[in-house]
Amino acid sequence: MRSFETVLVAFLAGTANAVLKDWQQCGGTTYSGDTACANGSGCVVINEYYSQCQPGAAPAQPPAATTLKTSAAVLTGANPAATGTPAGSGPGTELQTGYYWIRAVASPNFHKYMQSKPLYATGPAVLGDYTTAGQFQVVDGQLVQLVSGPGEKPEKLLYGIVSQERYINNNSLSVTWSTEKNGYGKFAFNGDGLTWNVAGVTRPNAAAWYVCTGQLMYINLGNYLYQTPSGCADQTIHYYNDKKANN
User: Fold this and answer.
1) d(CA 11, CA 30)
2) Fold of 81-247
3) pLDDT score of 231
4) What is the pLDDT of residue 84?
5) CATH 2.80.10 domain locations along the chain
6) What are the contacts of 165-168 at 24+ separation with CB within 8 A?
7) Strand blocks (E) in the chain
8) Residue 59: per-residue pLDDT
């Protein structure tokens, strides 16, 4: 009888969920692993596809349609109803006058280019292939993406929107694209690097970015190359003005 009880206890122990360490993935629409975070940590939704155990966060809530809807609204900036709707046909693969390519120049995203996902539409800012690179400029502190066709007047633009809500390690702000202007902070080029600043927030490096799961782009408010969260890579991104984007 004792042998049977021992086997039963071992079986039940083997079916229990493992406790995840801080910064490990704990959820997402295609995720099938463990979901329990260590004591004092909670499972925080980063986006529809990725949730992460973060120290000091509230305990994870059961998945619900409202949770995904909230996540989608965050990822689509100021215009969530237009998610995936192209705002223009796009300027093509030849750089238009007055605009730049913006790309990373360090591993693991060497020569990955800034763009919107879906292409030329409202939604998250991502780093992607050079063949689908977006074209950008900074105007009066606004990061603008050209989405109209070559020579089309008036030009159609999308604006880079910075979230005021913090994500991941409580030091990351999501960047999305919208037909409405950004109201939080200002973008600028410092040399060829793209920076962002806002009154009341002191950044150790105004050019520091994170590129995380799904190639989603976040402004890193913390130190560059220090305590990088799992699933993310530190990046600085720079303008590039050759006529054609290249890899």
Assistant:
1) 27
2) Trefoil (Acidic Fibroblast Growth Factor, subunit A) (2.80.10)
3) 93
4) 67
5) 81-247
6) 165/74, 166/221, 167/44, 167/46, 167/218, 168/44, 168/46, 168/52, 168/54, 168/210, 168/212, 168/218, 168/229, 168/232
7) 19-20, 25-27, 36-37, 41-47, 50-55, 101-104, 113-116, 123-128, 135-139, 142-146, 157-167, 172-178, 186-190, 193-197, 209-212, 216-220, 232-235, 237-240
8) 42
Distance CA 45, CA 65 (A): 13
Adjacent-strand bridge partners of 174 = 218
Provide the residue type at 247 as one letter. N
Q: Are 73 and 80 in contact (CB under 8 A)?
A: yes
DSSP 227: S
Q: Is 230 exposed, middle or buried (CB count within 10 Å of its CB: 0-12, 13-18, 19+)?
A: middle
pLDDT in the model for residue 17: 62
Judge whether 184 and 142 are in contact, CB under 8 Å: no
- Look up residue 7 and give its DSSP letter: H
Retrieve residue 244's tokens: 């054609």
Task: State CA 21 to chain mean position distance.
Answer: 22
Read off the amino acid at residue 88.
G
Q: Is 7 left (phi over 0), alpha (psi -120 to 50) or beta?
A: alpha
Residue 57 is predicted with a pLDDT of: 66
Ordered alpha helix ranges (H), the chain: 2-15, 65-75
pTM for the whole thing? 0.68
Per DSSP bridges, beta strands 101-104 and 36-37 are unpaired
Distance CA 112, CA 110 (A): 6
CB-CB contact of 122 with 158 (8 Å):
yes
What average pLDDT values come out for the chain (247 residues) when binned by 10 residues?
Answer: 47 60 83 85 75 66 32 38 73 96 96 96 96 98 97 95 93 95 97 97 95 96 92 96 93
